[in-house]
Amino acid sequence: MSAKLRILVPVKRVIDYAIKPRVNKAGTSVETAGVKHSMNPFDELSVEEAVRIRERKKASVDDILAFSAGPAKSADVLRTAMAMGADRSMLLEHDPEKEGGELEPLAVAKVLKAIVEKENRNLVILGKQSIDDDSSQTGQMLAGLLGWSQATQASKVEFDGESVNVVREVDGGVETVKANLPMVITTDLRLNEPRYASLPNIMKAKKKEMKKITLQELGVDATKRLKTVKVAEPAPRKGGGKVEDVDGLIGKLKELGAI
Amino acid sequence: MAPKTLLLLPILTPLTFAWGSNQDLYIRDAVQDLDPYAVEAALRRRALIARQSQIVKAKRNAGRMVLSRQINARSPKAMPEPEPVAEADPEDHPFQQYDAGLFRRDGSVIPRDPYANPTAEAVTDPEAWFEGGELHAKRERILEAKRAVLREKRKRSFFAKKAELAKREAEAEAAANANPEAVAEAEAAVEAEVNVEKRETGSWFSWMKFCPLSRTLSTTPRRSYADVVDISSIPPTPIFHFSETESLMAESVSKFANEVIAPKVREMDEAEAMDPTIVEQLFEQGLMGIEIPEEYGGAGMNFTAAIVGIEELARVDPSVSVLCDVHNTLVNTAILKYGTEKSRKMWLPKLASQTVGSFCLSEPVSGSDAFALKTKAERTSNGYKISGSKMWITNSMEAGLFIVFANLDPSKGYKGITAFVVGKEAKGFSIAKKEKKLGIRASSTCVVNFDDVEIDGDQLLGKEGEGYKYAIGILNEGRIGIAAQMTGLALGTWENAAKYVWNDRKQFGQLVGEFQGMQHQLAQAYTEIAAARCLVYNAARKKEAGEDFVRDAAMAKLYASQVAGKVSGLAVEWMGGMGFVRDGIAEKMFRDSKIGAIYEGTSNIQLTTIAKLLQKEYTN
Ligand SMILES: Cc1cc2nc3c(=O)[nH]c(=O)nc-3n(C[C@H](O)[C@H](O)[C@H](O)COP(=O)(O)OP(=O)(O)OC[C@H]3O[C@@H](n4cnc5c(N)ncnc54)[C@H](O)[C@@H]3O)c2cc1C
Q1: Does residue B431 have its Cβ closer than 6 Å to ligand 1?
Q2: Which one of A242-246, B27-31, B196-200 scores highest in mean pLDDT?
Q3: Which CATH number fits domain A5-256: 3.40.50.620, 3.30.43.10, 3.40.50.1000, 3.30.70.2190?
Q4: What pLDDT, in 10s, does the model give residues B207-251?
């Protein structure tokens, strides 16, 4: 049996995936007030994968720690993570309203690095991106800062002694990469199907630890490096047409002179 | 006889509170989660914070006085009296102020406010202050030690109170046991009244007005002390303030319903059958043991959580919702409240994990007049024998366990009615006919027969002859579940139609939902749904708080079913032809809504109950 896994699963509270985002009046960001929020869908995959790694028993999992940085309400996504199976959680309260915007990917990566070190982690599973900013940077930056191996956009994760095989879907097909612990993995849509938090587990999650932590305690400088110039709605889409089948599509394209 | 107050939990230690802060919400959450330890902890935390801010305030005042005296001494002109300090926000942690503030050698804080300028003092006596540092740490240690002593004291007083409560209850019970005549007298008095009632109306539902009384006749059990929570010192919040657990649960159930159940709704309705995998998943999600305590394998949640779950399921499918509702609010509750410890151990773990339950009260001859039931029970050498036939039994196709009401001694009238637990495998038990219905077609409703079904003595539920009390008690609560099924239905069908008219359907060159004639109808309907939901959740919270909720439950069910009927009918119209065809859910919700006015007491019966209780209140 390989080394005991001490997994870190960062999760983010984002606007619910089913909600159509709208730009705020000032044109500075997406409107978040009074909008339903939930856990970033890719992060649900990370939590699920961490719990499945424990359940599959191919690797022994010591501890699954969920972490979130964001407004106080982020406690909700941490409770969800714990109801899904994370053992405990940490919350870094950072209110974008009060602190002039969200933490940037680099700041988040630095925070995660500090937590990895403080909590002695040897595996970090993150979503490949969060659906609000779509930056797709945090995991990679974290691996760089830590000097660890990284396997991004995982669609399958398999433990084999000390090493981990990760299957990722790429343009030309599937690619399998192999790396040794410690490492960073980012999750893609087909990795698994996240469970629904069951009622008994929701009750159990209530008793699990949620620790608050600050940037100062972690010694991380989160000074902003990026400036958002303007946020605007995309131009409204011109009504498209529906076709029945491939022949219909070809006919239509010909008609429009596209082919 | 234990007086009713003993059913309430004096878990709250008498502390001074600072109202209106976030702390109040923590307490509210803890109360709603029925977790007395969390309540205690939250109260303690709030009191501590309030006390800390008092200390700071006192010090500020002291500092101001010293300073004004000094300034007065220096200045020939009297300074104006310092204005009173604004109420310190209890959320404002005093130690943050120590961190930021200035300290005198004696450890007191030099206040930072415009009336007491620390620099002035500093200039006259530079030795008198310095930046918080070592001294602060020391103060922290001393305060922490003091807090620990305080915590210990409060813990002790909490446990002492609990012990005292248990003692008083034991004494009350002993007194009642020692004086059986008094108890019998009280019971007889109530019965006399009941009999008069019955002669007058012929309907057992009218007896519900005695339910507050029957509480003291112990139809309300003294179950675990978490059953009832004293909310007398909790600041009020909006009815829809859900605890963290309830919100998390609503979210999880809604997701499950939309992703797993929704794709099967139409198919199950057409097939008039419940998909067994859905039942399996309801168990997996813990939705079949919502209120069953953890020690019996349930989720150990509160009553309102069950209501939240039933409502969320009904937004997607009222048939699945009623399966869950009957199982939780009627069957589980019956065993939890009235079963002996032995029967709880025997049945609850199964009900929480794999066995669906049914509640068999109605018969071909007894619907609204439920206690005219004809099913008979006889004592046998090692138990009982049941014979008769039950009608309209929800869940009977899926169920493995049936709670059956039968008369053990018809000569005693309704006082012979006794409740039993019968397993599906019992010899003589059979399902005679599955009804074809107008609505909730995926939920099974059958006639079930009991042909000399022999059961063991320990399959008696509670006590012989008390079945009528149990039925009344359970249905009073159960009604709130049906009301939630109806508000869920109304909300689900309203949302479905709203999405269509505001996103998809265009006529006369615009979305049909843009027409004012449509907008006003949608607004009116939503308002009525919101009103019905207020009744539902108010009844649920009152039940949890141990208050009388019989009228509230009846009003909630009456109104919720009316709103569901009206809104689901309108939703069909708003969607035009698309609402009428059997592709979407609009027409199904319309059909499903009708049942709300029938089962667990028809609308007339609810009105009778409400009127009786009102009349009692307004009669001199
Ligand atoms: C789908 C379905 C599921 C059911 N599930 C269950 C179940 O699981 N377990 C169970 O025990 N039962 C169940 N029932 C039975 C249900 O509770 C009864 O149908 C209900 O109590 C009404 O009784 P009834 O049908 O005999 O109507 P009746 O009592 O015959 O009523 C007919 C009409 O007379 C009116 N009426 C009757 N008495 C009065 C009065 N005193 N004053 C004014 N009006 C009055 C009623 O309001 C109604 O309009 C179910 C019924 C249905 C349809």
Answers
A1: no
A2: A242-246
A3: 3.40.50.620
A4: 333 333 333 333 333 333 346 777 777 778 899 899 989 999 999
In DSSP terms, A199 is beta-bridged to none
**Whether residue B204 has its Cβ less than 6 Å from ligand 1:** no
Q: Distance between CA atoms of A151 and A147, rounded to whole angstroms?
A: 13
B608 within domain boundaries = yes
pLDDT of residue B499: 96
SS3 call for B276? helix
Asked if the structure places residue B206 within a domain, the reply is: no
Task: Please check whether residue B118 lies inside any domain of the structure.
Answer: yes
Q: Could you tell me if A225 and A104 are in contact, meaning their C-beta atoms sit under 8 angstroms apart?
A: yes
- CA nearest A197 in B: which residue? B252
Q: Is residue B199 classed exposed, middle or buried when 0-12, 13-18 and 19+ CB atoms within 10 A define those classes? A: exposed
Question: Quick check: CB of B361 below 6 Å from ligand 1?
Answer: yes
Which comes out higher in pLDDT, residue B295 or B71? B295
Cα separation, A11 vs A112, in Å, equals 11
**Residue that wins the pLDDT comparison between B458 and B222:** B458
Helices (H), B257-398: 265-271, 276-284, 303-316, 318-325, 333-338, 341-353
Beta strands in B408-531 (DSSP E): 417-423, 429-434, 445-456, 460-461, 506-507, 510-511
Protein residue with least CA distance to atom 17, ligand 1: B599
CA separation for the pair B446, B433 (Å, rounded) = 5
**B413 CB contacts (<8 Å, ≥6 apart)?**
B371
Residue B135 structural domain: 3-148
Regarding predicted confidence, which is higher, B129 or B413? B413
pLDDT, one tens digit per residue, over B287-320 is 999 999 999 999 999 999 999 999 999 999 999 9
For chain B, say whether A206 makes contact (Cβ under 8 Å): yes
Interchain contact B151–A (C-beta under 8 A): no
The closest residue, in CA terms, to atom 23 on ligand 1 is B367
Last residue of some domain: B111, B130, B148?
B148
Please state the domain count of chain B.
Answer: 2
Mean pLDDT of A106-115: 97
- Whether the ω angle into residue A182 lies within 30 degrees of 0, i.e. cis, is yes
Ligand 1 mutation target, pool B274, B361, B362, most atoms within 8 A of CB: B362
- Bigger pLDDT: B518 vs B216: B518
| Distance (Å) from the alpha carbon of B502 to chain A's nearest alpha carbon | 14
More confident of the two residues B16 and A181: A181
Q: How many CB pairs under 8 A join A and B?
A: 58
The DSSP secondary structure of A48-116, one letter per residue, reads HHHHHHHHH-SS-EEEEEEEEEESGGGHHHHHHHHHHT-SEEEEEE--TTTTTSPPPHHHHHHHHHHHH
**Residue with the nearest Cα to atom 32 of ligand 1?**
B368
Q: What CATH code is carried by the domain that includes residue B560?
A: 1.20.140.10
Closest approach atom of ligand 1 to CA B603: 47
pLDDT of B250 reads: 96
Say if residues B229 and B39 touch (Cβ distance below 8 Å): yes
The residue extents of the domains of chain A are 5-256
Which residue, of B128, B148, B168, is where some domain finishes?
A: B148
pTM: 0.74
Comparing alpha-carbon positions, the chain A residue that sits nearest to B247 is A76
> What is the overall mean pLDDT for chain B?
81
> Does the CB of A165 have a partner CB in chain B at under 8 Å?
no
pLDDT of A9 > 90? The answer is: yes
Are the C-beta atoms of B574 and B522 separated by less than 8 Å?
yes
ipTM score for this prediction:
0.84
Minimum CA–CA partner of B254 in chain A = A196
- Asked if residue B49 is part of any domain, the answer here is yes
> For chain A, how many residues are written?
259
The reply to whether B294 belongs to the active site is no
Distance from CA of B462 to the nearest CA of A (A): 27
